Model the fold of this input.
Amino acid sequence: MIREVLDMLTEALRAEGERNVYTAFDALPEEHKGRFFTVIGIREMDIARPVYSPGNVYIPFTAQAEIRLLAPESAGSAALLDHFTGCTEPALEDMSDMRCRLTDLTMKQDSSLGRLVLCAGFEVSGLSIRERSVP
Done:
Protein backbone atom coordinates (compact mmCIF):
# COMPACT_ATOMS: atom_id res chain seq x y z
CA MET A 1 0.00 0.00 0.00
CA ILE A 2 2.87 2.40 0.77
CA ARG A 3 4.42 1.72 -2.63
CA GLU A 4 1.04 2.40 -4.30
CA VAL A 5 0.74 5.83 -2.61
CA LEU A 6 4.36 6.72 -3.46
CA ASP A 7 3.76 5.72 -7.09
CA MET A 8 0.61 7.86 -7.32
CA LEU A 9 2.42 10.91 -5.91
CA THR A 10 5.40 10.35 -8.23
CA GLU A 11 3.15 10.00 -11.28
CA ALA A 12 1.27 13.21 -10.40
CA LEU A 13 4.50 15.20 -10.14
CA ARG A 14 5.93 13.77 -13.35
CA ALA A 15 2.66 14.50 -15.20
CA GLU A 16 3.11 18.18 -14.27
CA GLY A 17 6.58 18.19 -15.79
CA GLU A 18 8.64 17.47 -12.68
CA ARG A 19 11.84 15.71 -13.58
CA ASN A 20 14.14 14.05 -11.09
CA VAL A 21 11.45 12.67 -8.76
CA TYR A 22 12.58 9.85 -6.47
CA THR A 23 11.17 7.94 -3.52
CA ALA A 24 12.89 7.79 -0.16
CA PHE A 25 13.76 4.18 -0.99
CA ASP A 26 15.75 4.99 -4.15
CA ALA A 27 19.38 3.95 -3.92
CA LEU A 28 20.59 6.26 -6.68
CA PRO A 29 23.52 8.38 -5.43
CA GLU A 30 22.70 12.05 -4.91
CA GLU A 31 25.21 13.25 -7.51
CA HIS A 32 23.18 11.42 -10.19
CA LYS A 33 19.83 12.96 -9.21
CA GLY A 34 20.27 16.35 -10.84
CA ARG A 35 20.67 19.97 -9.78
CA PHE A 36 17.07 20.23 -8.45
CA PHE A 37 15.39 17.03 -7.34
CA THR A 38 12.41 15.84 -5.32
CA VAL A 39 12.29 13.01 -2.78
CA ILE A 40 8.95 11.57 -1.66
CA GLY A 41 8.47 9.56 1.52
CA ILE A 42 5.71 8.40 3.84
CA ARG A 43 6.00 9.32 7.54
CA GLU A 44 2.98 7.34 8.69
CA MET A 45 0.01 5.55 7.22
CA ASP A 46 -3.39 4.53 8.56
CA ILE A 47 -5.39 1.89 6.74
CA ALA A 48 -9.07 1.64 7.62
CA ARG A 49 -11.25 -1.43 7.60
CA PRO A 50 -11.82 -2.71 4.04
CA VAL A 51 -15.27 -2.63 2.47
CA TYR A 52 -16.17 -5.65 0.37
CA SER A 53 -18.41 -5.75 -2.67
CA PRO A 54 -19.05 -8.76 -4.91
CA GLY A 55 -16.26 -7.77 -7.31
CA ASN A 56 -13.92 -5.44 -5.39
CA VAL A 57 -12.31 -4.66 -2.07
CA TYR A 58 -12.21 -0.94 -1.16
CA ILE A 59 -9.48 0.06 1.27
CA PRO A 60 -9.64 3.62 2.69
CA PHE A 61 -6.31 5.09 3.75
CA THR A 62 -4.74 8.24 5.15
CA ALA A 63 -1.01 8.89 4.98
CA GLN A 64 1.37 11.60 6.07
CA ALA A 65 3.63 12.20 3.07
CA GLU A 66 6.84 14.18 3.15
CA ILE A 67 8.02 15.80 -0.04
CA ARG A 68 11.51 17.25 0.01
CA LEU A 69 12.79 19.52 -2.76
CA LEU A 70 16.55 19.82 -2.82
CA ALA A 71 18.60 22.43 -4.66
CA PRO A 72 22.17 23.70 -4.53
CA GLU A 73 22.76 26.39 -1.92
CA SER A 74 23.59 28.80 -4.74
CA ALA A 75 20.06 28.46 -6.16
CA GLY A 76 18.54 30.54 -3.36
CA SER A 77 15.45 29.97 -1.26
CA ALA A 78 13.22 32.07 -3.56
CA ALA A 79 13.92 29.75 -6.52
CA LEU A 80 13.12 26.69 -4.42
CA LEU A 81 9.86 28.19 -3.15
CA ASP A 82 8.90 29.28 -6.69
CA HIS A 83 9.47 25.73 -7.90
CA PHE A 84 7.29 24.36 -5.11
CA THR A 85 4.41 26.79 -5.60
CA GLY A 86 4.57 26.66 -9.41
CA CYS A 87 4.90 22.93 -9.99
CA THR A 88 4.85 20.66 -6.93
CA GLU A 89 1.91 22.07 -4.99
CA PRO A 90 -0.45 22.40 -8.01
CA ALA A 91 0.34 18.84 -9.12
CA LEU A 92 -0.72 17.45 -5.75
CA GLU A 93 -3.78 19.68 -5.43
CA ASP A 94 -5.04 18.57 -8.86
CA MET A 95 -4.88 14.83 -8.14
CA SER A 96 -8.22 13.22 -8.88
CA ASP A 97 -7.66 9.87 -7.14
CA MET A 98 -6.40 11.23 -3.80
CA ARG A 99 -7.05 14.23 -1.61
CA CYS A 100 -3.90 16.12 -0.60
CA ARG A 101 -3.70 18.83 2.03
CA LEU A 102 -0.55 20.78 2.88
CA THR A 103 0.09 20.45 6.62
CA ASP A 104 3.52 22.03 7.08
CA LEU A 105 6.27 23.71 5.12
CA THR A 106 9.85 24.36 6.24
CA MET A 107 13.05 25.38 4.56
CA LYS A 108 16.53 24.71 5.86
CA GLN A 109 20.10 24.61 4.73
CA ASP A 110 21.73 21.18 4.93
CA SER A 111 25.45 21.87 5.17
CA SER A 112 26.33 18.16 5.08
CA LEU A 113 24.75 17.91 1.61
CA GLY A 114 25.58 21.46 0.55
CA ARG A 115 21.93 21.96 -0.42
CA LEU A 116 18.84 23.93 0.46
CA VAL A 117 15.96 21.66 1.43
CA LEU A 118 12.28 22.58 1.31
CA CYS A 119 10.24 20.04 3.31
CA ALA A 120 6.51 19.92 2.71
CA GLY A 121 4.21 17.71 4.74
CA PHE A 122 0.99 16.57 3.10
CA GLU A 123 -1.94 14.63 4.47
CA VAL A 124 -2.96 12.27 1.68
CA SER A 125 -6.19 10.28 1.74
CA GLY A 126 -7.88 8.07 -0.76
CA LEU A 127 -9.36 4.72 -1.58
CA SER A 128 -7.40 1.78 -2.92
CA ILE A 129 -9.56 -0.50 -5.05
CA ARG A 130 -8.53 -4.10 -5.52
CA GLU A 131 -10.28 -6.69 -7.60
CA ARG A 132 -11.67 -9.43 -5.46
CA SER A 133 -10.47 -12.84 -6.48
CA VAL A 134 -13.11 -15.52 -6.51
CA PRO A 135 -12.02 -19.18 -6.44
